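Field reference: sequence -> structure
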Amino acid sequence: MSFSILVGALQLYNTDTTFQSIGLIRGILGHDALQAPQDAQTPPRFPLFAKAISDTVEKEGPILVNHLFVGLLDHFAPEMMSGVVTTIRILTQLWTTNMQQWIPTVLDQIPVSPALQPAKTQFLVDFEDAIVSRDLDKLKPAISTLQRSVLRAKDRRRPLDR
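Structure field:
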């Protein structure tokens, strides 16, 4: 329930709330329980934490990814880019197969002008390349390029100040 509220907060147009929500989500997704090696001595509750987080991501992941991309392309403040990229990177690292399904679905649902279809297609190519090459550092430039394309298209649609 709490995670759902955090994900829902990404729809708000309040920078402070959204920034805090991204930070908390990133903290949950980056919990040590999810990174612990199988053969290492871990705290006894780590398996429970890992299962709870994984089950929640399986359920809420598509909505989370949707809100991250919609926010990034529509209303998030520029300083949130880093948090969004890190969150998408963690999701891609730990839930690769899911993200390969969620990302195309999410991008198809985002309403943008037909002129931006090539940017969405290129992002999908770059996203898949980052996974295949096992170089998730490629996600940041891919996300940045998509965001810039959308922002440029929005700027072109605005009337010129005279």
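Note: The two ends are 49 Å apart (CA to CA).
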